[in-house]
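ok, trying the design again with the full structure, not the truncated one.
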C-alpha cells in the first residue's frame, strides 16, 4: 500500500503520504529535526523509530542496509529515508505488490507500492520539482499529481502531511484517516491552519528558545491581520469549528 514523498527544503523536512489504507499518516511517517523515514508496504515501525535516530549520525545507505539485513520480512518492506547530511536512500522489497518502486532526486525521494504504475511516483516527483511556494502547498501539489496519474490502484482512503522546522516536534502535522478524498481534506486543513494555527506557531518554544514567546500580542495581531485579509477577499472560512 501507499506512496509517499520525503523532502528537504533548507531547514524544513517534509513528508507526505497517501494510501487506500486506514490512517497511513500515523503508520508511515517518522520525521525528526533533520531526518526522516517512510516505512511502508508491510510497515516495520522499528525501521522508522530506530532509523530516525541513527540517521542523525550515520549515512542513509548504511542505516538502510543494516535494517534490510536484519529483517526477515525484507521482501515485503518498502522504505525511503533521509539522513542529517541530506542524503537519501530507498529499498523496495522483491515481494512488494506491483506496481512498486522508488526514485531519488537531489532534494527529495518518492516511493510507492500497489500503484497504478511508475507514472505515479514520476508525476509526484516532477510536480514537486516544478512547484514553488510554501512547502505544505508544494507537497500537496506533488501528491495530487500522483493521484491524477493513478495513485493507489485500489482507491483512496487516507493521507498525511508532516513538516519539521529543525525541531524534534513537528511544525505542522495533518491527517485524514478515513476520507473519500483524503488529499482534498488535507488541502482544506492547510487552509484552516492558515486562519489561526500557523500564527500560533510563531510563539511555540524551541530548543533555542525554551519558553517561546512570553506574550501573545504578536500572535493575536497576526491572526487578526489574516482574518481581515480573508474577509476582505470574500473568502469564507473552511473550518468546521463551532461557536458556543
Amino acid at each position: 500500500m501507499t506512496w509517499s514523498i520525503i523532502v528537504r527544503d533548507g531547514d524544513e523536512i517534509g513528508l507526505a503520504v497517501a494510501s487506500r489504507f486506514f490512517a497511513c499518516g500515523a503508520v508511515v511517517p517518522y520525521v525528526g529535526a533533520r531526518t526522516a523515514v517512510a516505512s511502508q508496504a508491510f510497515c516495520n515501525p522499528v525501521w522508522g523509530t530506530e532509523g530516525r535516530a541513527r540517521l542523525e549520525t550515520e549515512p542513509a545507505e548504511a542505516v538502510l542496509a543494516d535494517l534490510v539485513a536484519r529483517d526477515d520480512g525484507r521482501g515485503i518492506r518498502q522504505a525511503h529515508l533521509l539522513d542529517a547530511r541530506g542524503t537519501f536512500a530507498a529499498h523496495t522489497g522483491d515481494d512488494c505488490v506491483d506496481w512498486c518502486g522508488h526514485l531519488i532526486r537531489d532534494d527529495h525521494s518518492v516511493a510507492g507500492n500497489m500503484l497504478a504504475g511508475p507514472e505515479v511516483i514520476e508525476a509526484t516527483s516532477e510536480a514537486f520539482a516544478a512547484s514553488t511556494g510554501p512547502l505544505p502547498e508544494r507537497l500537496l501539489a506533488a501528491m495530487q499529481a500522483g493521484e491524477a496519474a493513478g495513485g493507489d490502484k485500489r482507491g483512496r482512503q487516507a493521507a498525511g502531511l508532516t513538516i519539521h522546522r529543525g525541531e524534534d516536534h513537528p511544525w505542522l502535522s495533518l491527517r485524514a484517516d478515513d476520507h473519500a478524498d483524503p488529499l482534498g481534506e488535507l488541502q482544506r486543513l492547510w487552509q484552516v491552519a492558515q486562519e489561526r494555527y500557523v500564527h500560533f506557531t510563531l510563539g511555540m518554544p524551541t530548543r533555542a528558545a525554551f519558553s517561546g514567546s512570553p506574550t501573545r500580542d504578536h500572535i493575536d495581531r497576526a491572526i487578526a491581520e489574516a482574518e481581515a485579509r480573508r474577509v476582505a477577499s470574500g473568502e469564507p472560512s473552511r473550518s468546521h469549528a463551532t461557536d458556543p
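Keeping the full-length input from now on. The longest strand covers residues 12-19.
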